[in-house]
Amino acid sequence: MASAKKDYLNSASIQRMAKIRKIKSVFMTFLIGVLTGVAVLPLFLVFIFVIRNGLPAMNIEFFTSLPAPVGQPGGGMANALVGSLIMVAIAGLIAVPVGVLVGVLLSEYREDKFPSVVRFVVDLLISVPSIVIGLFAYALVVVPMKSFSGWAGISALSIIMFPPIVKATEEVLRLVPNSVREAGLALGLSRWRVSIYVVLKGSRSAVTTGVILALARVAGETAPLLFTAFGNRFWPTSLSQPMPSLPVQIYTYAISPFSDWHRQAWAGAFLLLMVVFIINVLARVLLTRGSGGSRT
Description:
The chain is about 80% helix and about 0% strand. It has helices at about 1-55, 60-65, 80-110, 115-125, 130-145, 150-175, 180-185, 190-200, 205-220, 225, 245-255, 260-295. The termini are far apart.
């Protein structure tokens, strides 16, 4: 009789504990959901606000015309779009190969002293504000050339793009199992061939994702371009002259007293937001496909 009573009490205690755990689980799930909503809410508000103001201002003229003279309605940002594409593309051509190779160095030769020094420099560089890098490019390129130029903007963007590519490449390559490297070495390949043709090639999808995210980051940079490329109202014809860019054009129009320029600034902000959003989605798709491929 006493044993049956003890079993009954233990069973009741277990049921009570299970009920308490279930309540805690539901409460924590609700709390995490609320906090996630709070974190995501600003992003949705930005999206809604920019779409509501920018989408109605989009038209064909925005993509095909030069900016209108001061105070005159109409015109577009075609020159700024071309200028941004040129500078981001050339900056990518400079920063991507160097950044990927430095990432390989930090991942595959991590036990040496030199990669430790390089990693320290990259960590410092990634924390430097972009406006400071713009001032550095101004002193390095604009002052000697005695003119704002596309080259100055490209140098600033490539410096900003470099550390994220290095960190992304290093982190991705660190996830590759050592057994892959040992298998390559066992086949008689040299260490650098294993690093480039086995480890890096097998992680190209994830590395590409990091590169794309770095390109998306510099596409919206404004402060460094104000000190370097500066911008102009005509088609870009030379990298040795001031180069128009979309972020700087948006900034110039946003602080102007003209309502039509404000409208075009919202259109530019909408376009820039959509470009960054699409690039991020593309990066996630590539990363997912890369992960799926690695599992198989």
